[in-house]
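Q: What does the predicted 3D structure of Rhodopsin domain-containing protein look like?
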Amino acid sequence: MSTSAAELSLTADEQHIQSLTYGLIISSSLLSLIVVSLRLYTRAVIIKLFGLDDIAVCIALVVTQCFNGLGVAVVYYGEGRHFENVSAEDRATWLKLYYAAMCIYLYASLSVKMSLLLFLRRIFVKSWIKWLTAGLMVFQVLFSVSGSLVLAFQCDPPRAAFDLTIKNATCYSQFKLFQIVLYQAVLIFVADIIMLLAPVPILYGLQMPTRKIAALMAIFGTGIIACIAPVVRFSTLDYLRKGTTDLTFDSASSLYWMVIEFNLGLVAGSLSSLKPLPFFRRFGSSINSKDTESTGNTPHELGEVSAGEIKRSRKKGHLGMGTSILEESVNESQERIILTNHMG
């Protein structure tokens, strides 16, 4: 069936929202792809240490890019257009894609959060960090599976969620869906804040030069933006609270904020692993002698030094008060931060 000229044309508001959605999905997905690829290259080729968190970020990247592709398809088949301007064929396809995105959203979030939690476990060896991240991982799995099932079975029969030809189906009201999605978004935000703030007490006690503090602020700034994304998405759910007959148009902002959340989460968890790259080494070459003395002029992550430097420091009997050393050895696959506070 041919598409009419009216269906092909876009109104000004439709053109704006579709261009914005396409742009944010594509740009954020490219950013995460580039940063994570550089992180994996750095870990596997330059420092030759590929840990469990690196495997997890590979999985998260694949899942996130699949969600990005699904988001592009959702826009192609009608997202950002007024419902009455979408053809019947495209509506049927859009409803299936929208339903699929709703069902796998929490799994995409889970893949990103697991990679971040495993990263924290690799970097920080404090026992309370281990317990906290383990608890969060269990919570994320249970929350994601249960939450996805609730959305997948929002109708009886489930197919009625995307097949409008089914009569006499029982489905959640839009307000009920609003309550469910808002509840999920709040829990995701709380978990994100916990992950973001957990390392702060440890980092606060480290002696680091200004350039490292600036780098950490940039990394944490990306993480803060990723945490803000679910909060902003609260306001985009208003169309469900009030009820809408223009779902394809009103749900667009919620879609691109989900994509931003996932992609910036991957970026935030990968930036600190890029220090061994030549660009970052050149950036760090301008430090002064005082900075070099306090940090050992370490090139990787939160104060990493070579195994030889660690051995030499151990022979001297101390590592320096408050020094943060990310330890590597040929017999261990994980780096460790050693916090030493010799009080005399």
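A (community wiki): The structure tokens above were generated from the sequence. Residues 49 and 332 are 9 Å apart (CA to CA). Strands lie at 155-156, 170-171, 324-327, 336-339.
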